[in-house]
Amino acid sequence: FPTWKRTLARRTRESQMKRFCRAQAIQRRLEEIEVTFRELEQQGTKLEKLLRDENDSLADQHTQWTNQLLYLVQKKNNLMTEESDLMIAVQELKLEEQQCQLDEKLRSYMNKEDALKTPEDEKAEQEILKQLVEVVNKRNILIQLQEEKRLSEL
Fold this sequence. Notes:
This protein is mainly alpha-helical. It has helices at 3-53, 59-111, 119-153. The radius of gyration is 25 Å and the shape is elongated.
């Protein structure tokens, strides 16, 4: 193996590990969000019952419960936004992994000398190149979506 091939293989493994670690972190955060959703739902249900059942409670108490309920709704909306961002990140990771696999396949065909390539090899190389362009376009769409979302939040 020439040095450049070893370096390329090492970089490929490193990028796979980075994607794997990032995917694990995203999965953990999605699970945390799910648990928090359930807790917020329970708290919201309790507050709604208090607001419905306590018609003759003090106005200050009623206002406090209403404010708490609104705070819970705001917190839930923030979590939903974060969850949406994480789902986009998951899609981006999948496309990134797919792109790396296609790059590797394409590199193997491109490293083959032209004189040794069969018509099937050339056809496969073109198909992989086409798939690679599709994946890059999908990643671009995701990035544009994230940018539009970021700008709309500002």
